[in-house]
Design a protein that fits this description.
Alpha-Beta Plaits, 4 helices, 3 strands, 20% strand
Length: 152
């Protein structure tokens, strides 16, 4: 069985590998699950780094029919161990950079009763539109890949 963990890109790789190894050892020692584990849960390292997410690949080998139970328990234990170290799963985010000279020009304090600078609102709208366009493009790529895979 293989599964992935998506963590922030600034997460310590060695710390995550140690946590996964420790969980693998604990599962091997578990009186109920241990006998069904043929090769322990272990990290295969970082598979990808993209969009502020680092994806770790985890694998183990188990007796047929028990792999789902073991995977759920491993995922639960890894999640708890990561949280104890202050490591949480990555959340999707898109970063929109605005040139500093433009920020300075639009950051002037409006006079009393005036609406916020239209540039600031426009920047927020542009950032949201860019993020949504990125998400929709990625979802379309996934949909097309799935459609192609089902046709094969």
């Amino acid at each position: 069985m293989k599964f992935k963990l998506s963590l922030p890109y600034d997460t310590s790789i060695s710390q995550v590998r140690k946590i996964i190894k420790k969980v693998g050892q604990q599962l091997m020692e578990d009186p109920e699950l241990g006998p069904d584990i043929l090769l322990p849960v272990k990290s295969m390292g970082v598979q990808t780094v993209a969009d502020s997410v680092m994806t770790f690949r985890v694998r183990f080998t188990a007796r047929f029919g028990r792999q789902g139970i073991i995977q759920r328990k491993a995922f639960e234990m890894i999640t708890e161990a990561l949280a104890k170290k202050g490591i949480h799963y990555a959340h999707r985010k898109v970063i929109v950079e605005i040139p500093q000279d433009h920020v300075k020009a639009s950051s002037t304090v409006p006079s009393a009763g005036a609406d916020p600078a239209p540039d600031a609102t426009d920047q927020l709208k542009a950032g949201a539109a860019a993020a949504m366009a990125q998400i929709l493009a990625e979802e379309e790529q996934k949909r097309m890949a799935l459609a192609k895979k089902t046709q094969e």
